[in-house]
Structures are given as C-alpha cells and as structure tokens.
Write a structure and sequence with these properties.
The structure holds 2 protein chains of 2 kinds. In chain A, β6 and β7 form a beta hairpin. Chain A contains 13 helices and 8 strands. In chain B, the strands form 3 sheets. A 4-stranded mixed beta sheet of chain B has the order 1-4-5-8. A 4-stranded antiparallel beta sheet of chain B has the order 2-3-7-6. In chain B, α1 packs parallel to α4, α4 packs across α6 and α6 runs antiparallel to α7. The chains are: A alpha+beta, B alpha+beta. The structure holds flavin-adenine dinucleotide (FAD). The site of flavin-adenine dinucleotide (FAD) has 17 residues of chain A, from β1, β3 and α13.
Chain lengths: 383, 347
C-alpha cells in the first residue's frame, strides 16, 4: 500500500524566479502561432534555447562549478511550468537539461562532467536518448544494439529508433548490450555517450503524422567509440536507465502537453462570448483536474527533493496527467463542433488538429499507460 | 507540537474510535433507522465535534486541514453521522459569540420557497439542523420538523415556523456542506481500495488469485490513481482561501474543484470495486455497499460535479486571467510557503 502524499508548496526563493521568466516569455513567445506553440516540449528552436542559456536558465539544477545555477528541482519546476504554459519551443535543450545532464552528473566521471555539463548549460550541446529499437519497445531489456570491447574502446553495431531530435543532436546516450546475450535480459547492459558525428552513424528522420520530422532512426555500423564513451558502470545500464526514467514521470510536462490548446480555447470563449453553459462547465472541470494534478505533481517533486524515490507515485501522476492531456483535445473536438452554424478561428482549429493527432503519443513516450499501470499494481502488492 | 505529529495522532485516535464504535454492524443498524446515540457520544467524548471551535470557546482550535483526518476516518468507517456539519456549525456559532447547543447539528441544503425546507443526509444523531436562508442560516430543532423520508438520498425536513431560532450571519454553507461531504467520500474511497486489493489477493479463479490477472491489476491501478487524486483534492479543499471569508476559513473555489473531482472519482472507484468483487459484492451481506453507497449519495449532496464545474468555470470567466495554469496557481494551489529556503544542490 502507498501512503498519502502530503501537500507541498514551491519554496518562495524558487517562486521568485517566476516573474523574470514570465517577462522573458512575454517578449519572446507571443509572436509564435498557437499551433506551433502546441508542439510544447517537441517544438525545436536552437536559437531560443541559446537565449535561455544566456539568461542562465539551462542546467539550473547543475552545480555552479559545471556551469549550472546550483538550484534545486523546484527552481527548475517553476521554469519548466512557465515554459510549457507559454508553449515555448524547448525541445532543443530539453533532453540534455532534463535527463542527460543529470545522468552525467550522477554517473559520469569527473572528466565527463567537466566536458559535457558546461556545454549543455551554454546551449552548445544537444542530446538525444537511444533506448527504443525496431524490435524493442516496452520490453526495454531486450535491446540488441551491441558494443564489443576492443583495443582503445568499443565497436558499436545496431539501430535505435524513435529517437527524438537525433538529427539535431550532438550526442546520444544509448542503452546497449555490452556483454552476454538477449537471454541475459537486464544483465550485461551499459550506457554510452555517443558522439553522433562519428563515422558509421547514419541518422534518418522519420516524418510523423502531423507532418513534422522530430524523431529519427539511427543506425550504427562499426562505429568505434573511445574508452570514455562508457557512462557509469559497465553492466550497470539497466539500473541507471530506471533511475533516469523515474525522474521524468511526474513533472509539469506530464500535465501541460495540451495546455496551449486549452488556453487557446479559453481565449476564444472570452473573445467571442462563446461560453455557453456546457463550455463553462467543461472549463470548470478541466481547471479542477489541473489543480489536483498540479498538487500531486508538486507533492511528488517534494519527495524527490527530499531524496526519496517515489517511483510508484510518479507513475500514478504520469498516467493521470497524460489522461488529462488526452482528454483536452477529445473534449474540445466535441465543443468546437457543438454549433455547426459557428466557425471557430482557423488558428484554434489548427491547434486542435495538431493536439488531437499527437495526443496518443503522450501515453506512449516515457513508458506506455499499460506499463505504468503494471508498476502501480506492483506497488499495491498485486504482482 | 509538530503539525505532522499532531496530524498523525489525531488520525490514529480517530481510526481507533471508529474501528471500535462504527463497526459495519453498527453502521448498518444506524442506516436501518436505529439510534446513533452511542456512536455519537463516543465522538463527542473524544472532542472531535469541537475540533474547529476556538480554544477560548472550549474547542480544540484546529483548522479544517487539521481536522480532515477525523472526517477521512469517519468516511473510512462509513459512519452515518453529521460530524463535519457539526464541526462547522459549532465553529461558526462560537465565532459569532452565540451559544452552542449540545447535540449533533446536520447541515441542510436549502430548498427554495417561502417554507422552511431543507434536505439533510447522514443525519443520524442530529438534534439540530442548520438551514441556510436569505438573511442567514437558521438553527432549527429536528424534533419540531415534519419529515419526508421518501428519497434514498436524504430526508426533506420542513418547519412550520422559525420561531426565535438562532440565526448565523450569511455564509457559503453550500461549500461548507460540500467540504464535509467530500472528506467523507475521500475516506470511503481509501477503504474501498484496501478492501478491493484484499479481495483480489484472496479470491481465486483459474487456479490463482484474481490479482494475478493483468486485466484486474490494471483496473485496480486506475482505482488507485483516483483514490490518490481524491485524497489530495480533499487536502486542497481543506486549505483556507485568500481572505478566509468562508465558514471556518474554507474557500469555495478549492471546494468546487475538489467536490467535482471527487465526485468523478467516486463513480469510477465504486464501479471498479464492484467489478472486482464479482457477485459477492452485490450481496447485502458483504460490506462493500456501505462505502459505495456513501459515494453515490455523496455525489448528489451539496452539489454534484455539474454544479461545481459550472461554478468554477463561471468564476474563471468572471476574472480576467488568460492562462489556466495561472488561475490554478493563484486560486487553487496551496498558499505559498513564505520562508522555506531554496535547496542548494551539493556537488
Ligand atoms: C513522440 C515519441 C517520442 C519518442 N521518443 C523516444 C526517444 O527519444 N528515445 C527512445 O528511445 N524512444 C522514444 N520513443 C519510443 C517510446 O519509448 C516507445 O514508444 C515506448 O517505449 C513503447 O514502445 P513501442 O512504441 O514499441 O510499443 P510496444 O511496446 O510495441 O507496445 C504496443 C502496445 O502494447 C502494449 N504492451 C506492450 N507490452 C505490454 C505488456 N507487458 N503488458 C501489457 N501491454 C503491453 C503497450 O502498452 C502498447 O499499448 C518515443 C515515442 C514517441 C511516441
């Protein structure tokens, strides 16, 4: 059984960051149309990421000696919440800031930290994550990309797929087999930092159903990795990957993926007095859900800040959060078609179309709904 | 004393009290029309009904957030008592400098019209009813009411005249009643989850516990999510609003969000619990319906989802906020911590 989450609040010192972030966003984002802002953390703009870096807002949680701001998770929570609420294009630095940097900080050697972290903080190094493969999705322990030790390093062969931003990134942190066979499952897996400019790396963007090419297939053909490409312990990849995933399930990005659409709809309700009784009630319902989800997300973050590992609670926030994110376009399709005599603004409809099309991905990326529910069931002692 | 510890002690003593006095058999007897006096006396003796009364007036001087564990515990036991209502009514009477009568006080939902009419639920043991009226809430004796028990969702009481009944200043008693209701519902849902997990690990089919089936696991996971959301919604609803003008400082916007969210969770949780219990859960003998019944009645009382969703949507549109998140932060989040330092990471 799980214990209830105590309510928590963001510390005042971290909240103090908010006005400056909002002012910056008010200057940089409103010019972007809502259907582009709806890309949320999949919107790519390297220039925007560098502008954030110039403000000191990349690597907020990394120690100062590596170029970070030395702040806690709640400072980053405030930043991310505002970025996503505004629909800022954050994807260029997103993975490095959220996962790769913290992973390097935790498991990397001093040399790896000194090399990578300052570059991430300056917005010069973008990262991607290579976990999934053509035959490896939910069953991550079945990865078959293989690194074989040889004189001076490792020889890498195999393929990764669905790799967000691979074609825009400088490095990939990949989970690969470094010993044993597929039957050994989670034993014999390791993580490597792969320089994507190395010979033998081929990156082919894959067009998604919304017309973007945000993820890629990455093929490795006899790529020679240097000795220091290994991150963390050889054979420790499985534990490292799971530590990484637990941290990315309960943040604002699991609640706010459709918020640009929600706010665009609200704008229409206000501007054209389109708020009939049903729309008003739906708005109230969505606000109530958002309030409860945010309280849960902040409460789980507080546990992370205290050094606990609320894996099940985080899974629970992600599943409920993505359900909310998916409900928004589903419910608004009904609202925007409720009165056939009325034509909502085209920008709002384009925002709806994008969000409706991409919404299924919210409960796939980062572990599917069914996998998360399995984790919750384990937490409840059912398996 | 440390707030968290007080909290736990209170929760623990409430749990013990209800486990001893509000057994399923006792709850069934009261729901069947039997007297609730013994159970109520135990609650009175523990001081729970005076939890929100200021210390100067002889109460415990707690706020709604401190008292929430008691209401959750009452909900876990499905105790059919007007405990939350009594807590709030006594606090309001004491604050207004008015005499607090002995005996339980049920909050009524006022029915419009000239007549003094109101609907009360879970009023076992109630000697008084607080009936909100234009101009203020009237404290009326149950003994003098004409009663209509035709509805399974609550009794309609009617008084010929208010006489010289004490009148409290106007306040949002609808929200106050919703708070008492939602707290009991959140508690009942926690109990339902425990009972469902227990049943799923005990009941065997196809040679194994039904908990071993992925379809069952996934349903109970969904239920767990709703129960967690309901609990945190109840906690949010117990926090004071800005200005603290509501009964006992309660805030209507937070309660609106929580009552609607909990109502939504309630029907899903009740449905899954019954699905997992199979035919056994449909029997009168198994206690599950004590808690699921509380959920179904609770949804209707003091505003169902439609009522509060409409209220909250209209409240948003009355203001000028453009962003949903900014509204949530300003109106529906816990008040900001003023003096906790930002964490520095140790390299
Ligand atoms: C937008 C997007 C971005 C992505 N970015 C990245 C990235 O940057 N890097 C990366 O490595 N990956 C990325 N992914 C891939 C993502 O991690 C996978 O989609 C996910 O792990 C699921 O794998 P799959 O798609 O192969 O589905 P499958 O595992 O084939 O699952 C298909 C269906 O079967 C169900 N299923 C599978 N196993 C079970 C089981 N044991 N019990 C019950 N049901 C089961 C699933 O829940 C799902 O409903 C991305 C995906 C998306 C959609």
């Amino acid at each position: 059984m799980l214990t209830a989450l105590p309510l928590s609040t963001i510390p005042a010192a971290d909240e103090a960051l908010r006005p400056a972030i909002r002012a910056f966003l008010a200057e940089h984002v409103p010019g972007i149309p809502p259907e582009i802002r709806a890309r949320s953390w999949m919107g790519f703009d390297a220039g925007f990421s560098r502008a954030l870096a110039a403000k000191g807002w990349l690597g907020l949680t990394f120690p100062k000696e590596y170029g970070g701001a030395g702040l806690g998770p709640f400072a980053r929570y405030v930043l991310v919440e505002e970025l996503l609420a505004a629909g800022a294009p954050v994807s260029a630095h997103w993975i490095a800031d959220r996962q790769s940097g913290p992973l390097i900080l935790r498991f990397g050697t001093e040399a790896q930290r000194r090399f990578h972290l300052p570059r991430i903080c300056r917005g010069e190094s973008f990262f991607c994550i290579g976990m999934s493969e053509p035959d490896t999705g939910s069953d991550l322990a079945s990865v078959s990309t293989r690194a074989v030790r040889e004189e001076g390093g490792w020889r890498l062969n195999g393929a990764k797929i669905w790799t967000t931003n691979a074609h825009h990134s400088h490095y990939m942190i990949a989970l690969v087999r470094s010993s044993g066979t597929a039957q050994d499952r989670h034993k014999g897996l390791s993580q490597f930092i792969i320089d994507l400019s190395l010979p033998g790396v081929t990156i082919s963007p894959i067009r998604d159903l919304a017309g973007d090419a945000h993820f890629s297939e990455v093929v490795f053909r006899d790529v020679l990795l240097p000795e220091d490409a290994l991150i963390g312990e050889e054979g420790g990849g499985w534990a490292q990957v799971n530590a990484e995933l637990a941290f990315e399930r309960s943040g604002p990005e699991r609640v706010l993926s459709s918020v640009v659409l929600l706010d665009a709809w609200i704008g229409w309700l206000r501007a054209e007095g389109a708020a009939d009784a049903q729309s008003t009630a739906l708005l109230g319902r969505l606000l109530g859900h958002l309030a409860v989800l945010r309280a849960m997300s902040v409460a789980v973050t507080d546990r992370l800040v205290r050094g606990e590992s609320p894996v099940v609670e985080a899974a629970l926030v992600k599943d409920l959060g993505t359900e909310f994110e998916q409900a928004i376009p589903a419910l608004l399709e009904d609202r925007l078609g409720a009165d056939p005599a009325r034509e909502p603004p085209a920008a709002l409809l384009r925002t709806l179309a994008y969000t409706s099309a991409m919404a299924p991905s919210y409960s796939l990326r980062g572990g599917t709904r069914e996998i998360l529910r399995g984790m919750i069931a384990r937490g409840m002692g059912l398996r | 004393m440390d707030a968290v510890v007080t909290d736990d002690l209170l929760a623990q003593s409430a749990a013990e009290l209800f486990a001893r006095h509000a057994t399923p058999a006792a709850v069934r007897a009261i729901l069947g029309g039997g007297p609730a006096g013994v159970l109520w006396s135990a609650v009175e003796e523990a001081g729970f009904a005076d939890a929100l009364v200021p210390e100067e007036a002889g109460g415990a001087g707690l706020g709604p957030a401190d008292a929430l564990p008691v209401l959750l515990a009452a909900g876990r036991a499905a105790a059919p008592l007007p405990l939350g209502g009594t807590m709030l009514a006594r606090a309001a009477l004491a604050r207004a400098g008015m005499a607090v009568p002995s005996g339980a006080i049920a909050l009524a939902e006022a029915l419009p019209g000239e007549a003094l009419r109101g609907r009360v639920a879970a009023h076992g043991a109630a000697e008084w009813v607080l009936l909100p009226r234009p101009g203020g809430a009237r404290l009326l004796p149950v003994a003098e009411a004409e009663r209509d028990d035709a509805s399974p969702y609550g009794t309609v009481l009617r008084w010929a005249s208010a006489g010289n009944a004490p009148t409290l200043p106007e306040a949002d008693w609808m929200a106050a009643g919703a708070w008492a209701t939602l707290a009991a519902m959140a508690g009942a849902m926690e109990r339902i989850l425990e009972e469902t997990v227990r049943y799923a690990t005990e009941r065997r089919q196809f040679g194994r516990a039904i908990a071993a089936f992925q379809a069952v696991q996934q349903q109970i996971s969904v239920m767990t999510e709703d129960v967690f959301a309901a609990r945190i919604a109840a906690q949010l609803a117990s926090l004071p609003g800005e200005g603290g003008t509501g009964v006992a400082g309660l805030d209507t916007a937070r309660i609106a969000a929580a009552k609607a969210r909990i109502g939504e969770a309630a029907s899903r949780v009740a449905g899954i619990a019954h699905a997992v219990h199979g035919a056994m859960g449909i029997t009168a003998e198994v206690d599950l319906h004590l808690w699921t019944g509380l959920l179904h009645r609770g949804r209707l009382r003091f505003g169902a989802e439609s009522h509060w969703n409409a209220w909250l949507g209209a409240e948003f549109l009355r203001g000028a906020e453009a962003q949903s998140l900014a509204f949530v932060r300003a109106r529906l989040a816990p008040p900001l911590a003023e003096n906790r330092p930002a964490e520095e990471t140790t390299p």
